[in-house]
Amino acid sequence: MYSCGNLRNRTGTDADSETLQNLLYQLQYRVQVHHDLSSEQIHRLLERESKRDVHKKYDSFILIILTHGTKEGMCGTDGNLVPYDVIKQYFNNANCEGLRGKPKIVIIQSCLGKFMDEGVPLKQLDALPASLPHIEEKWQQISVADGRPALEENKEKDSLLCVTEERRDADLQRGEPLDEKLPTMADFLVAYATTPDYVAMRDTKTGTWFIQGIASVFAKYACTEDAVSLFGKVNAHIAKRQTRGLGIKQVSSFESTLLKKVYFFPGR
């Protein structure tokens, strides 16, 4: 998104868009690009995309958003916010049949706040002592009475587990099929350019640190590393950067409910 309400134009976003399209083509994805959407148009696009039958033919889905934003949501061209969680509501396993049980990767390039991360000095930590007597003393202070409820609780859990297994065995013996289910919010990896409350850095010529970092890491490691490992490397890649003068830092972040390792295998 280039223009966003009363906020400054996102100069450099064209470089990000070109970088991402080249990367996705190398990963053998079909690419659609949408520019400058209002908050209402974002909602309509996400809903329409989640209902497309074409997703049944493909193995995974990637959604990338380039815009202004806050901790509460991403910004449309009208200046209104769309909560980030809306994306998962549209594409979760309950509401998006075509992508049910398939990896859904969401990449969000936006600020999550107004603070600039000035970083902290990197100092070598003193070596930990060989023993930690204060911890040992705390363990010695625990009485038998303190530990008893925990033992009873564990015993109760064991009993419940036994009942569950017996019921499962009985159902199988009767020939009754068991309904296999997926968690509604499984199979997502959502990556953010920064962490809550902080801005995301953007170069007006080369694009954002986050998107350029993704391109760099994927170019080196996508042939051998899985998605979670790749985005971990992106975090490390970005954390090494800092602006000239003020030395502003940034670190990206991600959350994953993927159930399996996801590999891209570009060029295969």
Characterise the protein shown here.
With 268 residues, the protein is an alpha/beta fold. 36% of the residues lie in helices and 12% in strands. It has a domain of 180 residues: Rossmann fold (3-Layer(aba) Sandwich). It has 7 helices and 8 strands; from the N terminus they run ααβββαβααβββααβ. The strands form 3 sheets. A 4-stranded mixed beta sheet has the order 1-4-5-8, sandwiched between helices. It starts with 12 loop residues before the first helix and ends in a 12-residue tail after the last strand.
| Residue share in β-strands | 5-15%
Major sheet characteristics:
4 strands, mixed
Radius of gyration: 24 Å
Number of strands: 8
> What fraction, in percent, of the residue positions are helical?
25-40%
Oligomer: single chain
CATH class call of the domain at 13-119 and 184-256: Alpha Beta
Low-confidence stretches: 135-153
How many DSSP H or I helices? 7
Distance from first to last alpha carbon: 32 Å
Which term fits the overall shape? Answer: globular
The pLDDT mean sits at 85
CATH architecture of the domain at 13-119 and 184-256: 3-Layer(aba) Sandwich
Secondary-structure-derived class: alpha/beta
- CATH topology label of the domain at 13-119 and 184-256: Rossmann fold
Order of SSEs: HHEEEHEHHEEEHHE
Strand adjacency order, main sheet: 1-4-5-8
Family: Belongs to the peptidase C14A family.
Domain Caspase family p10: 178-266
GO molecular function, one term: cysteine-type endopeptidase activity
Protein name: Caspase-2-like
